[in-house]
Amino acid sequence: MRKLLVPILAMILLAGCAAPRTQIPTAIYDFGLERPSAASSAADPSSSGPRLSASLLVAATSPAWLDNPAIQYRLLYHDRARSYTYASSRWAAAPATLLTQRIKDRIAGVNNDGVVGANDGVRADYALRLELEEFTQAFDTPHQSRAVIKLRASLIQRSTRSLLAQRSFGVEEAAPDATAAGAVRALSEASDKLIENLINWLAEKLPDETKESSQNP
Fold first, then answer.
1. Which among 152, 204, 143, 209 is positioned nearest to 178, based on CA atoms?
2. Residue 91, strand partner residues
3. Residue 142 is part of a domain; what is its CATH number?
4. Which of 97, 106, 160, 173 sees the fewest Cβ atoms within 10 Å?
5. Residue 205 above 80 pLDDT?
6. Whole domain around residue 88: which residue ranges?
7. Cα–Cα distances in Å, from 46 out to 42, 43, 101, 183?
């Protein structure tokens, strides 16, 4: 009887090892729908916000460690030089891709002459080159974190290939909780603030071609 029990037990153990493990579904995030206030003001030409009057090409790059859909975070209280990723949550695309699309959508709403991407094959008078340097959730303590976005913008006149202006942007936003969902919410809100600052900067640096054309008929 004992000789029969040994192979039976072995078969039960093998069957247990072969049974499929329950997989945790991956949560996929993007920046969500545009905030109603931002969308309505961008679509209304009579709004008090800045408007642009120059065709603009927008393209963004990011370092290799950010060029993927992972949601990154840092434990500053433990090791400031190390980044981590959430195992069961990710972005729908790399952060630079999501941010570029959001920026193009917002600029299109306030630009009289339109906005295009690098792969659209359409000529534009100016190029806005964006270099995303940081897009993470930073934990100052195990229970307190904030979104941190750092980006360098370069405005280039395409006809002469000359650099008109360059500026580094940095935005932070407190995260509501110490989770991937909290990171997404804080990074989305920080992105909207950064885009608002970026558009204000573009309005200052881009030539006002509407005024120039009226002065030189």
1. 143
2. 29
3. 3.40.50.10610
4. 160
5. yes
6. 65-206
7. 9, 9, 24, 35
